[in-house]
From TrEMBL, chain B:
This is Galactose/methyl galactoside import ATP-binding protein MglA. The gene is mglA_1. Its EC number is 3.6.3.17. It comes from the Bacteria. It comes from Ruegeria atlantica. Keywords: ATP-binding, Cell membrane, Hydrolase, Membrane, Nucleotide-binding, Repeat, Sugar transport, Translocase, Transport. InterPro entries: AAA+_ATPase, ABC_carbohydrate_import_ATPase, ABC_transporter-like_ATP-bd, ABC_transporter-like_CS, P-loop_NTPase. GO terms for cellular component: plasma membrane. Residues 6-237, 253-498 form the ABC transporter domain. The keyword Cell membrane applies. GO terms for molecular function: ATP binding; ATP hydrolysis activity. SUPFAM superfamilies: P-loop containing nucleoside triphosphate hydrolases (SSF52540). It is a peripheral membrane protein.
Length: 306, 505
């Protein structure tokens, strides 16, 4: 056992990478749930995003096009959820589960010829001056653009929900869809847009795994990150910055326990492997003890009855 | 003759199986307070939804100041100066007052400016309101102020108010009327929907009466008696329940020093509640909705358990017992919410009869259900209480509100309770059904049952109860004999005006 082998700078830098897929999926789902829709298909949308992004970037040689394709792929799959829940008024829980199962199977089919292929690399941005600062530079300022996009999205979602009219209407729809309808807001339209946004974010998160974090394609490679994202939204009390904190905490402990395993710490591997889940949930449960609750219309089917 | 502000001509709207509005025509003049009267289901709500652009009429036209007016959506109606205060408030509990108001406006100013305008308008009209409070924490009266101010900020030409006083104390009603009179003097027209006749007589200039979707007459309320208007609404003469003089027995239910927190986030905790009900007595519990009624029912039914001694039945402590144990002893309850609390909406009437009747009627045997006996119990309720349904195999959801209410009340009454607690027994029920439910409660009391009737309908409580107490923020006032109690006294028992003040100017 040699803890000295763990490089703290590399550790912190890689935790940000490990957290990004989770963060992207969670911030998308947060918006969906704020609009009052519970989409349990995050895992399915992520894996479809992962293979769409992977395939397109291999075919075109451009990781950028890959990420755009991933966002579109996730959004297209979420369109299926839209059809089921917003038009056919199907149960959201069942539809979400179906979406996940469908996405896992469909991605495996699409990805058959991509197993073992290496995708083009996106490359990191070295922000001038800032990236040269010792310690902080390598940790914060030498990452790929999508990681920064993730953080920017959190800030944008937070500001939109808090300060803009669009955000207020979105929260109103999630809080009381009958009242929002009575005031003349288009509940279904707003929810569709939110679901598509959630799908695009989940797709980006999936592609981040297949193009940057791993980078390769294997079946079922999202490995439950979508489910963690769902739990994260709840434990973060539907607050964007808390979702970021939770994602980084989870990513951090994941990376740390991998390093500890590599260093041969005398703790059984099983305990190390479960630690990210336990610690993230504990911290967020303690944080969410304040007065904050789910959007009141979450998961309820809206049907204009007039 | 001047052009009316809004003229409705032959408005018709049909839903599958029912014609909600049939050729309704009337005019609302400038600066007029126009009443729209009718029973539940007479089509009042559909009519105003058409004016507000929520529902499109099948045929007929509307003219606003002589111009054709057909709002495709509420936004368009608001742009033309029509504002509406909803019956069931269209507010968002988790948002604050200013955010709620911003949602009802087309082009709201920045939050800071909006808050200042809310303060200004609320002070002018005597409706004090803090823009930054969360709506879920407000009282019913305060929530209504939010809706009214939301309308006033848009300078409406026509203000539609759908049953505005059903949630207010008498003092709060007075303040609301001051505000409405001030609006009228400024030239705003008001369409006032209600079935409370005395209110309409004091406030309104003109009334249109709807029955079964048709305009059955118009009158000047100040010159028409309440009874005449009621008979126009109902279409027949009204029967008032009879109550025979009776002796009260010993104390059946004794509640003392009862304090419990509310199980729901926006609920009201009960604080040090004392009351006794004697055999044969009807205790009426009044108060504005949300002051602890649901909690009181929960505590008496056993859904919320308390210290054993806080509730005694015939001297025996029952505070710790759950609903089934209490039913066995003879303490029965019928909650307010018909679909979901008093009855399971998707289950048949037979199954619903079993749910509360199994203990006292012996409808199960070592865990096996006796369907034949259950079915005949359900049929007994249906025939005894004149429940209009094809048969006991129909789902509870398929019954109209009044019929289902007769069923859930009848189900408890037929189990011969020693104590019966009912919450809002005639809420949303037409006048004839309400009268028969009240009569059933009185008949039960005459046989020696102690009855607690929780209701927001003061007329109902005055009609059936022997003593009256009011809930206010979870506290119960000392019960008083109903005879000789005045409306002012009742209002004070209900907590007065909750810190409201009358309009300045």
């Amino acid at each position: 056992m040699d803890l000295g082998e763990i490089n703290p700078v590399l550790l912190v830098a890689s935790l940000m990478v490990a957290a990004t897929p989770l963060l992207l999926a969670a911030i998308g789902e947060l918006v969906v749930e704020k609009a009052g829709v519970l989409n349990l298909g995050v895992e399915g949308m992520m894996i479809v995003g992962a293979i769409s992004g992977f395939a397109i970037s291999v075919e075109t040689g451009s990781p950028w096009l890959g990420f755009i394709a991933a966002a579109i792929g996730g959004a297209v799959l979420s369109l299926l959820f839209v059809l089921l829940t917003q038009f056919a008024l199907a149960n959201q829980v069942a539809s979400g589960l179906a979406l996940t199962l469908f996405g896992l199977g469909f991605s495996a089919l699409m990805g058959q010829s991509y197993v073992g292929v290496k995708p083009p690399s996106m490359g990191d941005i070295h922000i001038p001056l800032l990236s040269d600062i010792p310690v902080i530079g390598p940790i914060l300022f030498q990452h790929d653009p999508i990681l920064y996009l993730g953080i920017a999205l959190v800030a944008a979602v937070w500001a939109t929900l808090k300060y803009t009219r669009v955000g207020l209407i979105l929260r109103a729809v999630g809080e009381n869809h009958d009242a929002a309808h009575a005031l003349g807001y288009k509940v279904i339209k707003i929810r569709i847009l939110a679901i598509l946004f959630g799908g695009a974010c989940a797709g980006l998160g999936g592609a981040y795994i297949s193009l940057i974090r791993v980078p390769q394609w294997t079946e079922g490679m999202t490995a439950g990150v979508g489910w963690i994202a769902l739990a994260l939204v709840v434990f973060a009390s539907w607050k964007p910055w808390r979702a970021l904190l939770g994602a980084y905490l989870f990513g951090g402990i994941t990376v740390l326990q991998l390093n500890l395993q590599a260093a041969g710490v005398a703790i059984p591997v099983e305990y190390l492997a479960m630690s990210p889940y336990i610690i993230t949930i504990l911290v967020l449960v303690i944080l969410s003890a304040d007065k904050s609750s789910a959007p009141a219309s979450l998961g309820r089917t809206f049907h204009a009855s007039h | 003759m001047t052009t009316p502000l809004l003229s409705l001509q032959g408005l018709t709207k049909a839903y599958p199986g029912v014609v909600a509005n049939d050729q309704v025509s009337f005019d609302i003049g400038e600066g007029e307070v126009h009443a729209l009267l009718g029973e539940n289901g007479a089509g009042k709500s559909t009519l105003v939804k058409m004016i507000y652009g929520l529902v499109k009429p099948d045929s007929g036209t509307m003219l606003l100041r002589g111009q054709a007016f057909a709002p495709p959506e509420p936004r368009a109606a608001r742009a033309d100066g029509i504002a509406m205060v909803f019956q069931h408030f269209s507010l968002f509990d988790a948002l604050n007052v200013a955010e709620n108001i911003a949602l009802g406006m087309e082009n709201p100013p920045a939050m800071g400016d909006l808050a200042a305008r809310i303060r200004e308008v609320s002070e002018t009209y005597g409706l004090p309101l803090d823009p930054y409070r969360t709506v879920g924490d407000l009282s019913a009266g305060e929530r209504q102020r939010v809706e009214i101010i939301r309308c006033l900020l848009q300078d409406p030409k026509l203000l539609i108010m759908d049953e505005p006083t059903s949630v207010l104390t008498p003092q709060e009603v007075d303040i609301l009327f001051e505000t409405l009179n001030k609006l009228r003097s400024e030239g705003t027209s008001i369409l006032y929907i209600s079935h409370k006749l005395e209110e309409i007589r004091t406030l309104c200039d003109h009334a249109t009466i709807l029955r079964l979707g048709k305009n059955v007459g118009e009158c000047v309320p100040a010159e028409t008696s309440a009874r005449d208007m009621a008979e126009m609404m109902v279409g027949s003469t009204l029967q008032t329940p009879e109550r025979s003089g009776r002796e009260f027995g010993e104390v059946a239910l004794d509640v003392s020093g009862l304090s419990v927190p509310s199980p729901s986030e926006f609920g009201t905790a009960l604080k040090n509640v004392h009351m006794t009900v004697r055999k044969g007595e009807v205790l009426g519990v009044g108060g504005v909705a949300g002051n602890g009624q649901d909690e009181l029912l929960g505590v008496l039914s056993g859904e919320i358990t308390t210290a054993p001694d806080a509730i005694k039945f015939n001297g025996q402590p029952i505070g710790k017992l759950g609903p089934t144990a209490r039913r066995k002893l003879g303490v029965l309850t019928a909650p307010e919410e018909r679909l979901g609390h008093a009855a399971a909406p998707d289950m048949s009437l037979t199954e619903n009869a079993l749910l509360t009747g199994s203990v006292r009627e012996g409808l199960e045997n070592n865990g096996f259900l006796k369907w034949a006996e259950t079915k005949s119990f359900a049929e007994k309720i249906i025939s005894a209480f004149d429940v209009r349904t094809p048969g006991p195999e129909n789902a509870a959801r398929s019954l109209s509100g009044g019929n289902l209410q007769k069923f859930v009340i009848g189900r408890e009454v037929l189990q011969n309770p020693d104590v019966l607690v009912v919450n809002q027994p005639t809420w949303g029920v037409d006048a004839a059904a309400a009268a028969s439910i009240r009569q059933a409660i009185l008949d039960l009391a005459a046989k020696g049952t102690a009855v607690i009737c929780i209701s927001q309908d003061l007329d109902e409580l005055m009609e059936i109860s022997d003593s009256f107490a009011a809930l206010n923020e979870g506290r119960l006032s000392a019960p008083r004999t109903t005879t000789g109690l005045t409306v002012d006294e009742i209002g004070l028992m209900m907590g007065g005006a909750h810190g409201m003040e009358v309009a300045h100017v």
